[in-house]
User: Fold these one by one.
Assistant:
Number 1:
Amino acid sequence: MPLPTDLCLAATVAADLGVPVDPSVERCVSAASREIARLCGRHFGRATVTEYPASYGRPFLLLERPPLVAIVSVVERGELLDPARYTIAGDLADGGLVYRLEDSWPDTARVGGLVTLTVDLRQGSPSALAVTYTGGFVTPGQVAVDPSSGPVTLPADIEEAAILEACALFRGRGRDAEVSAESLGDWSVSYRERAEGQRLASARAELLLAPYVLRRVS
């Protein structure tokens, strides 16, 4: 059963592996998709969400679900902000950035998982700055679950990375990840070990994903 968060289809992975689609392949697809989301520090699927971002008094807000499709509302200190005071035009949307057209955003930062106004208020207050928006890509999993949500807009290199990672996870099932070689009599086999710092099972997938990793100040 596909999940909306799946970044590729089990049928594609099964075809690459030369095996039938079964629950094992589906689990590897979903596991690979979760690993990729964690590696990149972002949610890929399109959704309408509310975030309480940290701005640190800068003119840019970085939201967690690029590309930005539309800003529904921005609430600042409990007041609805005029949409004419900010923009996501041009390349801003692709980077998940909301630009303040005048001055800067209020000086907010993350403290203990909440967002605080670091100058005016020391206690956690999500109402300090709240952004409701639609963002993210339409994933293969979302279209598989609901065809009307299509077409797929997920970049091809992200989908390819998910296929590679799912295949690597499937091939590695039942093997101790700490064992790099096995032998029995005249038979022996060696497994490629992960390079230092490598987080995914597929090194090629990790390279494909490098441009999509979000880095933010916490």
Note: The radius of gyration is 21 Å.
Number 2:
Amino acid sequence: MGWKIVSRPDCKWCTRAKAHLAVRGVEFYEEVLETVAMQRAFKARTGLDTFPQIWDGDRHVGGFSDLKAQMA
């Protein structure tokens, strides 16, 4: 299944998370929540409202800080 980043446009932490994975050669799939309605639906479905949200397969990693700490 691989890595997945759920992001929103113009999110500096999303950009940093993608760069963090890319520098390490980790391939990932990105789901961009382009509208406020999409972001609200994501929050309603998951309870998560900050971005990015990152998964390694079925395991929820968290946000950028969590990713950075895990891959230190």
Note: The mean pLDDT is 96.
Number 3:
Amino acid sequence: MSHQSCMVRHFQYFTDLSESEIELLSTLEKSPEQLGSGEVLWREGERAREMAVLSHGWAYNSYMLEDGSRMILDIFMPGDVIGLREYASEKHQTTVEAITECTFCRFPHSHLEDVFEKSGRLTHTFFSISAIQQSMLVERMVNLGRRTAQGKLAHFLCEMRSRLSKTNDGSLEVFRLPLSQQMLADVMGLTPVHVSRVFSSLRDQSLVYRERHQISIPDIEKLKGFADFREDYLRLRKKDGFS
């Protein structure tokens, strides 16, 4: 899959795009930049003048707490737009770091404004994606504050699988999740040891099997029920009629 087609497929999940809109969208994926695992795209507190498209690989953003601990807020996959929530901010509110080898395409805010001016449908889609990102953040807060440790991990795995299904064919009974135990702990507010114990518990219940970074879910509907996972917050309705 080319680095351009990934973002287009991501957007086409929400709406049908014309050839001119596909071409306009592709202008945001020029000048690809390669970053290795652990390298930083931008840091919390730096001047926020740009956004980025993740064309290849996995990344995350994080916020450092006063005690030095890290909270991971978002996991980014190919096709994701990074920095939408900071569009009106003077400074970046989080640090963005590559999990795997990544290809990022930075673009200034003015390029997005050009897209808004030329396409109502793409404008709607960008706002839809921004709303979904906000909804995922709300679910993350619910996960941290209200779900059990098993519920947190089960819900997170359901969310990852659902997001992957947007740009992947097949049942996704098995999928790759390239997050370390520490990263998973920082997503869910647990310790790495606790994450390991929760995986063992889910395995004992035949809900989830993990082999290194490979996740196997034999019965996704059963896991969704266990996690009380309802994916409406990931699936905004299409809206037609834009030119």
Note: The helical segments are 3-12, 19-26, 109-118, 120-146, 149-165, 181-188, 192-204, 220-227.
